[in-house]
Amino acid sequence: MSTTPPNHALQQTRRERRGWWRRCLRRNQVEKLQAPTSKLQRSSKVQIPITKCEPWSFEIWCLKFLWMLELGIWSLATGVSASLAFPSRLLNTATVQPTVTQLTDLLVASYATDGGINHLDGKNLPSKHAICIITNDLLGLLFPGFFDEQLIHSSKIKAETAKLLETVMASLEDEIFKSLEYSPPEGIAKKELRNLAHQRTIQFLEKLPGIREILLTDIEAAYKGDPAALSKEEVIVAYPFIEAIAVQRLAHALYLNDIPLIPRIMTEWAHARTGMDLHPGAQIGRYFFVDHCTGTVVGETAILGDHVKMYQGVGLVARSLAAGQLLRGQKRHPTIGDHVTIYAGATIVGGETVIGDHSTIGANVTLTHSVDSYSLVVQKDANVNVMSKKERAKSDGGFQI
């Protein structure tokens, strides 16, 4: 039985074709050379000095092209790549790929028709990337050493604080100027916006000590409210809640000073990092704590008193948003009194809903009306059944959950 590989004949055919084309090309070149004079040229192997070759004629170029075309066609037929100067797939020109210029024209055309662009006509929106850096630096000012890669010695804390504060001041003023230019206050000329941006930057930075004081109450509430917390330092460095509420309190200060865009960018940055959605417009009292943090939503017009404790998945939301922009400026979110505890998955709805002081809202409760102080709100007769899966399988004809 023959052991010749199946593709041996194809390989031999390829070698024969390549040899035939080379001999044609060599014979055409030899005929154009002068008579051999040296011993090397009279040898059995014909040597073709490149320096004595005349430029290729039109016939040689045709032979060369046909040779390359033949090899390329053979490669397409057999699925084997040929060693050519261009890939064999270029022979298929049925589909013409668009050029970069054509793609650019299509994309720019969509800019003109659909919008969604920035940095045009001299008016720039605030830089999202820059605001994220500023927010992280602000956290470093609130909690020195906790949000820095390098440790800060107590002897250098004043110099490091001044250096960081100067950087934040310059960057934040630029972004506030962009925000004011995007939505200028009434009665303010454009030439006055730079000076106004500087003033509001200074006003905001003057509030940092007060914000830090309130955050210390949140840290204490988290430490006392979570038996798993080892220390207040662990709460600061590890709990995503502290980062979320710190950013919200910073953004709330800007929100109260009528700075557009920046407060929302800051809280959405924290939202993406922590899973906790705290609107910068929400009024949140002291000693606030959200355990586990993830999935919590506090709307723009929500009002929370002091010593409010919540768990994951709590929503303080609006009743309906069908009216859209017509609801702007109206109170859409509930009011929570002092010393209120809201357990996981509870949803409290509506701007007219008020939860009285010292109340407790149980898990997974949906509340659409107000309750008095010292109320306990829980689900009753929720029809939770526990049964044997084996018995259910027999009674339901093999149905399984």
Descriptive tags:
3 domains; five-stranded parallel beta sheet; 401 residues; serine acetyltransferase, domain 1; UDP N-Acetylglucosamine Acyltransferase, domain 1; alpha/beta
Description:
With 401 residues, this protein is α/β, with parallel strands linked by helices. It has three domains: 8-91, no CATH class; 124-277, serine acetyltransferase, domain 1, CATH 1.10.3130; 295-381, Hexapeptide repeat proteins (UDP N-Acetylglucosamine Acyltransferase, domain 1), CATH 2.160.10.10. The chain is built from eleven helices and 14 strands. The chain has helices at 8-31, 58-78, 100-114, 128-142, 157-182, 193-206, 208-225, 232-238, 240-256, 262-274, 389-395, and strands at 277-278, 283-284, 289-291, 297-298, 303-304, 309-311, 315-317, 335-336, 341-342, 347-349, 354-355, 360-361, 366-367, 376-377. The strands form three sheets. A five-stranded parallel beta sheet has the order 1-4-7-10-13. Strands 3-6-9-12-14 form a five-stranded parallel beta sheet. Helix 5 crosses helix 6. The longest helix is centred in the middle third of the chain and has 26 residues, at 157-182. It starts with 7 loop residues before the first helix and ends in a 6-residue tail after the last helix. The model is unreliable at 33-54 and 73-86 (pLDDT under 50).
